[in-house]
Every structure is written in structure tokens, then in C-alpha cells.
Amino acid sequence: MHGTHRVVRKTQLSDEVYRMEVEAPLVARERKAGQFVIVQYDEDYSERIPLTIADADPEKGTVTLIFQTVGASTHKLAMKEPGDEIILLGPLGNPTHIEKYGWAVCVGGGIGLAPLYPIAKALKEAGNKVTVISGARTKDLLVMQEELNAVADEHIVVTDDGSSGRKALVTEPLAELCKRNPPPDIVVTIGPPIMMKFCAETTRPFGIKTLASLNTIMIDGTGMCGGCRVSVGGETKFVCVDGPEFDAHQVDWNQMMSRLGAYKTQEKEAHDKCHLELSLAELRKRDDKGNGERQNEGAAK
Amino acid sequence: MSSTEPTKTREEIEERARVELENLRGKTLTNKMRLSIPVQEMPTQDPQVRRSNMSEVATGYTKSQAMLEAQRCLQCKNAPCVAGCPVRIDIPAFIARTREGDFVGAAQIIKRTNLLPTICGRVCPQEKQCQMPCTVGKSLGGTDKAVQIGRLERFVADAAREAGKDEIPEVHGSTGKRIAVVGAGPAGLTCAVDVRREGHEVVVFEAFHKAGGVMVYGIPEFRLPKVLVAKEASTLEAMGVSFEMNYLVGRTRKLSSLLKEDGFDAVFIGTGAGLPKFMDIPGENLVGVFSANEYLTRANLMKAYDREHAATPIYPSRRVAVLGGGNVAMDSARMALRLGAEDVHVLYRRTREEMPARGEEVVHAEEEGVVFDFLKSPTRVLGDDAGRVAALEVLSYELGAPDDSGRRRPVPIRGSETVIPFDTVIVAVGNESNPLIARTTPELRVDEQGHILVDEKQKTSLDRVYAGGDIVLGSATVILAMGEGRRAASAINEVLQ
Predict the structure, then answer these.
(1) Among A38, A253, B118, B231, which is 20 to 30 Å from B189 by CA?
(2) 3-state secondary structure of B276
(3) pLDDT at residue B475 above 90?
């Protein structure tokens, strides 16, 4: 049976953030901004992990994933090396609706900057003026900055600790942009739910159309399990087939956040256990490298 | 029923049947004598033991039991049982072979029309199909007294498999034609075999990482061991069928691209069940409310029961309410027990009589300690401060006048609401159709519920595109899906001649 995909390159971006390029020619060709994939580190025991697509190269036939080690499966995924096989299904979800709005503001938080990039790029290519707000806890967690710089007409960087850009939350510059005359025509936000919720609250009084891309718990990603359901405008929607993007002003954020926390206890346990294993593996690899072998060029970045 | 008797060992069961069989030897059996042979009960694991393991509950007939049960068949000329079988197995013929002890021969007769007898023998609702019109059952005044055709089917199919006589169906010389089968569930696999036999090249596209569809994600290990499903899929591979796993037609590749660019001459869509239905009551998005699809997929396909190895977590449940009365509800309830729940209740709006679940599963669930709350349906899910399920508000019903289907309609009893504490709610009230292919193939005609419309040959509104199984039928059964896959295959074979 066919259906596994080869890891081409792996780069560790920070303590808990990895970038992985995977051979998936059909996905690379079909995918559009806003879509995601489901990944498994093996066939028998892995969870099915929904990950957004950060980038794709149809000519090389590869897709780029950026992910944070959260539970058992993302840690095991991070231990995969170039040449290893993983399972990947996609592209899933509806593509972002791209059109010429005028002025588009793209707000990304942490790992959410990765899927924000193809959307910002597509908006730019459609003739929009694009402002990007990149936010993270600290400098190390700001991903895709070069790529975002390349497509943004204006790029505002904020960190919680002031280690890069302004010391602020993303909502601060977002509010300032909303007050400009004319205000933005559309805002797209991807990041932690709490950040998206507050972006929605920031733009709401200005009546600016705001889209949020949701990354909920899901199993199959094809419209079968219903685990990803969220309440949008009082109606139950399935993120995998109705989303992943919804009107941020209509999403029931509190419900979404409590649903995301369904397995928090199990995740925490798995994280602590797996992160130790992963760190040990990385250490061993660095030892090997010291001995002259240099396979994974990005690991030390 | 067996729940009142202590569980006998396999050896004791075999011995009892062997002695009875010995007594019949050399006699010419009259119909009256055949009718006096007792129904052979299915040996099972002890309920108290099996409720905490995932091994198969029903352990299968012993050899003498099978041969004795086969003696109960009257070999009716008009064979009402065959008419009750969706794939028209020659039931009297396979039972005649079983009587003689030629189990491999019996299995071969079944395999002429049913390629998956180890599976059908376990999951078909026989009491509503072949066993319902059985003359023996009718003469003895109850379907439960009918010849146990399903148990015999399972026995001979297992015997043939264990004897290594699971022959690979013959494949005709290559026709140069290519067929795409979308979905590796019962409909797709059946269709794939039948078109492959004609010599067509066949590629099966499956979104999951394992073949089998509902047989791997839905039906639990304790009812259908996954090695059996994997075995059937490997038979297909041995026939030369290729599988593209982790491939979602509609997303990874459009249906139209398969036909226009990838050189497929025909496509069969067997994508199965889709979006789970919910009750449409307040509180259904609280943490702790699961669709049966999600709950069972976590437990079966993702192996969440194997806490040692599996990464997929399962919700820690103590008091579980399962809503619904079908096989999926039974599977969910029994799975919850096995995953450690202390108290599992099935809430059903009607009574036991109307439950659509297979009779044997209901008995098994009861033996294992599942509590049935009949004539009850929830009106609200109540949560705690953290947004987790804390209780159900439940309304009681009574049976009123018969409705159009002839069943007495449940009527709510006003003011009968009570609040029952639960921490988990599993909703098993069926599925909508999967919207993906229809949404990404606008020319394909579907009904208001999104089921693909087909003609009597399973052909859709598109040329060279056929469909069958739950995507056409809604929530049906494995065997009905197989029947549709088979019908589509013969139409495809005819068109491509």
C-alpha cells in the first residue's frame, strides 16, 4: 500500500518549534492558502495531527510544515529525520477566499505566523496593500519573518518581552491601524485562540471584516468525527469541512477554548515525558555531529 | 438466556454437541427430528472478564456445534433464507456441505457471492435478513429459533481461513481499462474485487491510513478482529489491486481529474458515512460530548485503548450516557465499559422491541453491565463551570398510537424531566452524508441530505461514475454496502466490455 511521504529537511527553529519540508507532490500542487494537512509519525500509534501548510513548492513537490511540540505525537514527529517516512493527508479545509479588498491586515501570533504567510502572499498577489503584524512571546518564537518581510508593504513586530520589535501585544498596533483613515478593509488573524479572540474584540467596534483560522482538535479531518465542531453565529460548524476560516466576530471563543482543553491533562503529561526524550535525542545528535557528520544543517540554528 | 447459566468451557460445549451428533449418526432424520435439535448457542467469553478486555466476545462455534446446527436446516426447496440475503448466498448448499464436515467446500460456496464471509458472519443483522424467513424459526415460533446461518457462515469462513484455503479469486487477463475506487470500506472493497476479476486495473483511494472503512474505525475489535479486515485487504493486493492510502479524492485530487487527466475509465464512489448527527439540544458542544464516530475512531483506529503505546488520548469517563439504539450505540457503550467507565447507560426513546441493533449485541451489552433506560430522551446537556459535561436533563416518554411504520409512537410525558449526573455523552443517532465529493464535484447530483443519487445500476448523474454504500443509502449496514458495491461493479464491467 502506498501513501507515506519522505521528510526532505528538518530545521529546529527554537526550543519547541520545528520546520519540516516533506515530499508530497500532489498536495504541493493542489494546496491553496488557508488549507491544512493531517500528519502522523507512524501508522500504528500516532495521533492524527492537523497542521497548517506554511509553504509549498509545486516544482520540487514539497510542502513546508511548521509545528510546535505540544503533545506526544508532535514530539515524536520532531524526532523524524530527513529520509524518514511520515503519513500526510491533504490539502484539507476550504482555501481562503482571496480577492482585492484594498488594504489587508494580517495578524499572526507565534506558530500562527506560518499559515499566515501563504495568505498574506496571496492577498498581496491579488493586488492588496498588505500590513503584517507579527507577534510572539519572545524573539525566538517569531517564525517566517524573512518570508513575511518579502510580501508585506508594512511589517510591525511585537513581542511580550520586548526582545524584538515593540514590547506589546498584537492588539495594540492592530487598534492603531483600525483608527487610521481609511481603516483596513479586512483583517486576517491566526494564532492562539485567546489572541484571535482579542483581535476580534479589537476590530469589532470598527466594523472591520475579520477572519480567523481555527486549529481545533480533530481526528479524520474529512468531515466524519465532529470533534472539531465550533459554534459560529449560534450554529454548529465543522472546522474541517466548513472552515478552517470563520468570521471572527461570530465565533464562540470561550466554547472553542474550553473544547481545545479537553485533553489538557493528558497533553501536559505527554509533553513533559516526551520533551525530555526529544531533548536527549537532540543532544545525542549534536554529539554525532561533533564527530564530523553533518546531515541536518539547520538543527543548530 | 445464557446470562442465567454459568459460562461453560469450550470443551464442555464441544462435548455436549459431539454426543448429540453421535446420537443422530446413521439415522434418517425427519423434519420433526431436525426441529427437535436445540439451537446451538454462541460460545462467548465470560461477561465479567470480557468487559475489561478487547478480545473478541463471541468465540465461534466448535466443530460439532457447527455440524449439529447444520442438521437443523430443512433444506427447503424454495429457500426463503436466500431471498432474505442481500447478496443471495446459496445458503442451503453451504449448510449441506457443513453437515458433511466439508467446511472449506462450504466456504467456497459462500465466496461465490460474498467475498468477506468472516466479516459478514460476524456483523450482519441475520435475524432481520436470512434468518427472519427461515422455516425452522417460523415452525418453532420465533426468529431466535431459526437456523443460525450467520454463526455457521462465520464458522466455515474461519475454518477455511485457518486451513489456509482462503483462495485468491481468479483474475482474467488484462483489459487495459482502469477503475478508480474511492473509499476502502465494504462497498469499495467489494466493488474493487469484482471489477479486478474482469481483468481491469484497479486503484483504491483511501483517506485513512488503514483499509476497511467502518470495519476498522467503527466496529470494535471485540466484535470484529482487525486482523480479519487486514487479511481481506491483503487478498485484494494479492489479486493486483493497488491502494493509494492517505489520499482524499475531492481534495488531494478532484474526481474530474481522475477521469480526465489520470486515465481512469470509470470511478466508484464509496465514501461512506459523513458528518455525525447530533440531537440538536442545548449543551451539545460542551467538553465531554462526543459523536460515536469520534469516540469509536479514537478507540479503534487510533487504538486509544492501548494506553501504553497509543498517542491518541481518550476522555477519562466514569458515568457515560449513550444516546441511540443501534449497533453503533451498543459498540460505544461496550467500548466505554472497556475503557474503564463505571456506569454506562443507553438512553433510547422507544423500547427494546424497536431497537435497530443486532439482537446478540443487545444481549451481550446487557450481560456486560450496560444499563438500558428505555423511553427516555435528553432535552439538555448541563455543564460545569469549566464547560465540561455534568449532567443530562432527561424527558420520559410513553408509547402512543402506531405511526406510519406501524410502530407505536413515543409520546413525551409532560413535566417528567429529571436531571441525571453524567460526565460523558456519546451521541449515536446516525450520520449525514459526507459533503466533500459533492462540494468539490458540483455536477454530481445529490438529494437534499447530500446522498448521491443513483439509478438501479448504481450509476450517478455523471458518465462513468458510480456510487454505493452509506454515501447513497445513509446509515446502513456492511452487507447492504457490499451489495451496492457488487451491483456497481457488474454495471461497470458491462459498460467497459
Answers:
(1) A38
(2) strand
(3) no
Name the residue facing B436 among A45, A88, A223 (closest C-beta): A223
CA distances (Å), origin B127, targets A56, B2, B121, B357, B457 = 54, 18, 12, 11, 27
Provide the shortest C-alpha distance from residue A181 to chain B (in Å): 40
Residues A211, A216, A222, A225: is their CA dihedral positive or negative?
A: negative
User: B53 to chain A nearest CA, in Å?
Assistant: 19
Query: Strand B266-269 and strand B465-467: pairing?
Result: parallel
Q: In degrees to the nearest 10, what's the CA dihedral of A154, A159, A162, A163?
A: -90
DSSP B70-139: HHT----SS-HHHHT-TT---HHHHHHHHHTT-HHHHHHHHHHH-S-HHHHHHHS-GGGTTTTT-HHHHH
Its pTM stands at 0.91
Cβ-proximal residues to A67 (8 Å cutoff; 6+ apart), any chain: A17, A18, A20, A49, A51, A74, A77, A78, A111
Query: How far is residue A10's CA from residue A19's CA, in Å, rounded to a whole number?
Result: 6
* Spatial CB neighbours of A60, under 8 Å, sequence gap ≥ 6: A28
pLDDT digits (tens, 9 = 90+) for A71-84: 788 999 999 999 99
Do residues A217 and A262 lie in contact, with contact meaning Cβ atoms separated by under 8 Å? yes
What gap in Å lies between CA B186 and CA B68, rounded to an integer?
Answer: 31
Per-residue pLDDT averaged across A153-177, rounded?
Answer: 95
Kindly give, in sequence order, each residue whose CB lies less than 8 Å from that of residue A279, ignoring residues fewer than 6 positions away: none
Residues of B within 8 A of A225 (CB-CB) are 276, 291, 293-294, 297
Alpha carbons A165 and A159: distance in angstroms, whole number: 7
d(CA A19, CA A5): 16
Q: What are the C-alpha distances in Å from B62 to residues B17, B151, B347, B491?
A: 8, 11, 36, 40
